[in-house]
Amino acid sequence: MAQSSLAPAAAPAAHEKLKALGILALNGMFDEMDAVSVLRYAITEVLPGDMAIVSSFGADSAVLLHMVAQVDPSLPVYFLETGKHFPETLDYVETLKKQLGLLNVHAIHPNPDDVKRFDPNGDLWETDPDSCCHIRKTEPLEPITEQYGGWVTGRKRYQTSERGVLPHFELTSDDRIKVNPLAYFSDADVIEYRQAHSLPEHPLYAKGYKSIGCAPCTSAVADGEDPRAGRWRGLNKKECGIHYDFNGAIASPMSAATRHTLWKDGAFIADPFKEWAEGANPSEARYVHVPMAEFLANREAYLANPHPLGLKVSPGDAIEEAADDLARFASIAISFPAFTDGRGYSTARLLVERLNYAGEIRAVGDVLQDQIPHMWRCGFNALVVTHEPTREALKEDRLPEMALFYQPVGLSEVPMGTRPFLRRVS
Which residues are named in the active-site annotation (predicted)? Predict the structure, then answer.
């Protein structure tokens, strides 16, 4: 199976035809069971050359992939290889590729640095399945789907009550199209189609696995149970996070700008860290920036906590008090409660220049575009930005430039009004 490397160069289409037709009119063009026509129209008319499919290669995947092979076997097919799949699923990928003649299947793997950082023991699914899905599914997939105008899913109305109003075509809040050719198919329809076309069955289907995801979070279902009852059984979880349903019941529709406020490595990316909640148990906290005072008051408990943590430093906090424990934290968030409060710059410089902290240093709070060049100079390598003009300035690479410095950083910057040859090297 090919490793996904180069993404399509084309930007998402403007969807002019879809806008002209209207989403309701488009959904009214097809019979409920005319899945192949829905798929063909989406691929050849709505977004030609600008659509892909994301497949789990699970229990029902052969049906949709067979339709793809009929319409366009070269359509890009992406498989999330989370590192947690059943061996039978990986074998099934190769079986379907060969039997259906799929020409463009790519595996998407999680970022190994993220796995090492947030799930070093591989057991995150036990304690925080949402974060596990985020690292292994949502974040790896998003850069791929963002480069297409639309993508095809295998979701069906019968699978859960939340999917009960699923249409053939969805227009997402970020102006993309999601196509659900099998939206009206029942379990019996899937079985009938699979048998009619002699499609290979997933090796685990006969053992009671009616919906198949990652091995640790998938179990067999009993007769009469919801087909997805075996996914995250016993947990208050129904979706992995890559789907935002038509009715908003699974996840509220959000724009990319709302979802992604963390700017790092030249782009807005999904943030694994969550907001700190007062009263959190120090031994159970994970993916939060612990306030400095809270950490110092419960230092031993936080040091014994095996989960990824960050540290939040507010104005007035002395970062030196945590100097011996900085390596414990995957991220340090420095708060700027107001544009005019510059104490955070000094904290960042202390972390980098004296305390030799090499992890993520992020600015949070009142982060505006005029501040950002100063932040980079002082050691920040990540920013949480909600101010829309600043977000646009970052995206368009039009931050203000600085050539003169009253307070230099390092030896390469010269204070305005001084003679560089008189500077003392110490």
Answer: 240
